[in-house]
Specification:
Number of helices: 6
Strand order of the largest sheet: 5-2-1-6
CATH superfamily: Ribosomal protein L13
Shape: globular
């Protein structure tokens, strides 16, 4: 008897099928913004996680894992970043070309002397997916050593990293 009543109710009521469908974003429906972040006196790892989340688009309600739905991020003052502890001397960055004996190690002090931007770029790239989507997301990152950048025409919105979770 109970089963019969449930079927009868389902026949009588019209269900709005659009209310429970999952909407998946694509390139045409994504709203990309330009964001400006000041890296002055910011800890590298914490800065990189927040920037990677912005690039990925995880802060948006229409986040879709297989689509580039993140924002374009401009990081200024990358030459004024901070490491905690003794990481300037003890941390090591490794590269390997694939040939035997071609592993190279460099600490952040030497890497910073060569290229001031590469520490922030490596930290963010390490937190992005290792596939074509990750490469596409990394192209949305723009890192500058000083306060000047060439993206004034995009009118970037300045974000305070302390307000981002």
């Amino acid at each position: 008897m109970k089963l019969f009543l449930n079927k009868r109710i389902k026949k009588d009521k019209k269900v709005n099928t659009l209310s429970y469908r999952t909407v998946s974003a694509n390139k045409a429906t994504v709203q990309k913004e330009w964001v400006l972040i000041d890296a002055k006196d910011q800890i590298v790892g914490r800065l990189a996680t927040k920037v990677a989340n912005l690039l990925r688009g995880k802060h948006k309600t229409n986040f879709t894992p297989h689509v580039d739905c993140g924002d374009n991020v401009i990081v200024i003052n990358a030459d004024k970043i901070v490491f905690t502890g003794k990481k300037w001397d003890d941390k090591r960055y490794f590269t390997h070309s694939g040939y035997p004996g071609s592993q190279k190690r460099i600490n952040p002090t030497e890497l910073f002397a060569k290229n001031k931007l590469s520490i922030v770029e490596w930290a963010v790239k390490g937190m992005l997916p290792r596939n074509r989507l990750g490469n596409e997301l990394f192209r949305n990152l723009h890192v500058y050593a000083g306060t000047e950048h060439k993206h004034e025409a995009q009118q970037p919105k300045e974000l305070n990293l302390d307000t981002i979770k």
